[in-house]
User: What shape does this take?
Amino acid sequence: MKIADILNELDLFQDFPYADLETIARYLNLEQVAKGEVIFREGDAGDYMLVLIEGRIAILKGGEHGDQMLAHEGRGRIVGEMALIDQEPRSATCVAESGCDYLTLTSENLKKLSNEHAAVAYSFMLCLARLMSRRLRRASGIMADLLGN
Assistant: This one.
């Protein structure tokens, strides 16, 4: 299956014309990991994000009482986008809970996409901004609930 076809099946990319998906696909790399493998660790340098296309991953955050489970993510989920954008160290650890296939977009390839296809890159970044905004709103709601108890 072509990468553009995979993207076309994912919610994040539903508003993109297929030709734009073909363009984005040229800047993505397909990766695979086995169950139990660490994809990245909290504190690692981060220069890519991933789009999970098969399998399940766990997101863990270190604390004074050890790692705490933040989330389980499945097909179509975007992970690591903050590090792609701000080049800061990873804020959590990502571990494969099963064998996983995922697509990566590196910061270098994002720059190439921006230079070579500015309009497509803009649309992609706007989608990422919306995704991050939804996640921040959800986290703020959770914090408000916890502080209210």
Remarks:
- The mean pLDDT is 91.
